[in-house]
Design a protein that fits this description.
- There is one protein chain.
- By secondary structure, the chain is of the alpha/beta class.
- It has two domains: about 90 residues, Rossmann fold (3-Layer(aba) Sandwich); about 50 residues, no CATH class.
- Helix content is about 30%, strand content about 20%.
- The chain is built from five helices and seven strands, in the order E-E-E-H-E-H-E-H-E-H-E-H.
- It has a three-stranded parallel sheet, with helices on one face. Strands 1-2 form a two-stranded antiparallel ribbon. Strands 6-7 form a two-stranded parallel sheet.
- The longest helix has 12 residues.
- The radius of gyration is 16 Å and the shape is globular.
Length: about 140
């Protein structure tokens, strides 16, 4: 996957399981387009504690893997500043209205949806401004 002509520099894996391999794929497919080595941070395992990884891809593409448990308030503030300044661009897969929370949960649980990125719930009162451009509709 390419964002604005560039492969992902880093992925924060909150899912684990089968998704870890997919996340690695998103970073290593075009190494010639990179100026840094890919970084994979593991911060969760909602998709399972066990992932099958081809270790040759890790060392051939020099993927850096980090374990992350949680951060400080100052680190969270720094992260938000990077996002606001455009230095860090989180991947947003799509949005659901908060009133459609159940549909969002079903979509999230269905790993067959093949989503990559965040799925967010937006309060109905803010839907037109913040959610509608990213709507997933009736998927």
């Amino acid at each position: 996957m390419i964002i604005r002509g560039k492969p992902f520099d880093a992925v924060m894996d909150l899912v684990g399981g089968e998704m870890t391999d997919t996340f690695i794929d998103t970073m290593i497919f075009d190494m010639k387009a990179r100026s840094t080595y890919p970084r994979l941070s593991i911060a969760g395992a909602s998709g399972g504690n066990i992932s099958e990884i081809l270790w040759t891809r890790i060392y051939l593409y020099q993927v850096q893997i980090f374990g992350v448990s949680h951060g400080t308030r100052e680190e969270a503030d720094q992260l938000m500043a990077w996002i606001r300044d455009g230095q860090l661009k989180p991947v947003l897969h799509g949005a659901f209205k908060l009133s459609d929370l159940h549909h969002a949960e079903v979509y999230f649980e269905n790993r067959g949806s093949n989503y990559l990125g965040k799925i967010v719930n937006v309060p109905d009162a803010q839907w037109n401004e913040h959610g509608k451009p990213f709507t997933l509709g009736n998927v």
